[in-house]
């Protein structure tokens, strides 16, 4: 079966299709000692070279992992300022390359997905997939209901209107208040910018879910775990790709979700049933806790920095899709 050369190289984790198309345009890719052009196809018998080096077929099946990123690491492979890259903490591979599914900024911690399947990674990140990303957010001060409604309905940012698909209070103590928010697009620093647009300061931000994959209970900061088979299958379904033969879904493991992250019994655009906010420790030293809290958190009384501070409402849709899988936010200040 023949496929376009840029698709084959992307699937082997060498880079994004856009990057590889640039290599082809610059004459850096050869097939059977012939320089290829965009649109050329290859099959399993062809010998591909990139900058003179043979691209070998992977000897091992693809891998999929979750990394609990700590604050202070960058998502690039190298950094002129000498900051530690997340790739330095990942398992070493032979003949394959880790591809990150999305990014987290320097001061954000939590879930990062990595895979050796470049096509899967690129599909998961594509805006048309609209995969949900869920975050636990600690803010300074109380946030008035009117401000929360504004964030659900839409706020005008410098690169266009944006909103939280879901925003739920999760308790807090003193000046700190926790929320869980869900977005379904990957714009740069979107969660922080939305809060900033309404005059609220974010003091901590942790990604706890990407599509159907959650950070998981007990995964320490800086640690890695392999995805379970049901999680891998969920990612391929979310990306509208066939599940590899090597992946066999088995076992039970919690409520089934729509591949994009929504509970199957919840329709898009319909808010989740109202319930009491839950409170737990958002980021323990031994990892994210997804278990229900034993004691309710204390409510905070000091007035905070809530308010709109000149934020302009956007013509967004009222209400919001539920993020599903809401996890309790934390209350401990470090």
Automatic annotation (TrEMBL):
Residues 243-334 are annotated as: Disordered. Residues 3-60 form the RNA-binding S4 domain. SMART domains: S4. Gene3D superfamilies: Alpha-L RNA-binding motif, Pseudouridine synthase I, catalytic domain, N-terminal subdomain, RNA-binding S4 domain. Residues 255-268 have a biased composition (Basic and acidic residues). InterPro entries: PsdUridine_s_RsuA/RluB/E/F_cat, PsdUridine_synth_cat_dom_sf, PsdUridine_synth_RsuA/RluA, PsdUridine_synth_RsuA/RluB/E/F, PsdUridine_synth_RsuA/RluB_CS, RsuA_PseudoU_synthase, S4_RNA-bd, S4_RNA-bd_sf. Residues 316-334 have a biased composition (Gly residues). Its EC number is 5.4.99.-. One of its GO terms (molecular function) is 23S rRNA pseudouridine(2605) synthase activity. Keywords: Isomerase, RNA-binding, rRNA processing. One of its GO terms (cellular component) is cytosol. It catalyses: uridine(2605) in 23S rRNA = pseudouridine(2605) in 23S rRNA. GO terms for biological process: enzyme-directed rRNA pseudouridine synthesis. Responsible for synthesis of pseudouridine from uracil-2605 in 23S ribosomal RNA. NCBIfam families: PRK10700.1, pseudouridine synthase. Belongs to the pseudouridine synthase RsuA family. This is Pseudouridine synthase. It comes from Thioalkalivibrio versutus.
């Amino acid at each position: 079966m023949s496929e376009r050369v840029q698709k084959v190289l992307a699937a082997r984790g060498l880079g994004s299709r856009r990057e590889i198309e640039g290599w082809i345009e610059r004459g850096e890719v050869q097939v059977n000692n012939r320089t290829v052009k965009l649109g050329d196809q290859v099959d399993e018998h062809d010998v591909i070279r990139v900058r003179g080096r043979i691209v070998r077929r992977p000897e091992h099946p693809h891998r999929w992992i979750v990394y609990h990123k700590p604050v202070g690491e960058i998502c690039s492979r190298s950094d002129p300022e000498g900051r530690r890259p997340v790739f330095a903490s990942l398992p070493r591979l032979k003949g394959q390359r880790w591809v990150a599914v999305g990014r987290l900024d320097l001061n954000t911690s939590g879930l990062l997905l990595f895979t050796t399947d470049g096509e899967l990674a690129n599909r998961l990140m594509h805006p048309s997939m609209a995969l949900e990303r869920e975050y636990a957010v600690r803010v300074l001060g109380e946030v008035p209901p009117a401000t929360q409604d504004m964030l659900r309905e839409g706020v005008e940012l410098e690169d266009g209107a944006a909103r939280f698909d879901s925003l739920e209070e999760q308790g807090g103590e003193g000046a700190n208040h926790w929320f869980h928010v869900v977005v379904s697009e990957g714009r740069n620093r979107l969660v922080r910018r939305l809060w900033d647009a309404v005059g609220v300061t974010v003091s901590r931000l942790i990604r706890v879910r990407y599509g159907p994959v959650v950070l998981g209970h007990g995964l320490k900061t800086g640690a890695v775990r392999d995805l379970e088979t049901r999680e891998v299958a969920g990612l391929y379904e979310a990306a509208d790709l066939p599940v590899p033969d090597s992946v066999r879904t088995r076992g039970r493991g919690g409520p089934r979700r729509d591949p994009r992250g929504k509970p199957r019994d919840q329709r898009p655009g319909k808010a989740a049933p109202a319930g009491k906010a839950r409170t737990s420790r958002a980021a323990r030293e031994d990892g994210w806790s997804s278990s229900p809290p034993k004691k309710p958190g204390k409510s905070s009384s000091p007035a905070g920095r809530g308010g709109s501070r000149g934020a302009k409402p956007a013509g967004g849709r009222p209400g919001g899709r539920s993020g599903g899988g809401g996890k309790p936010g934390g209350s401990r200040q470090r």
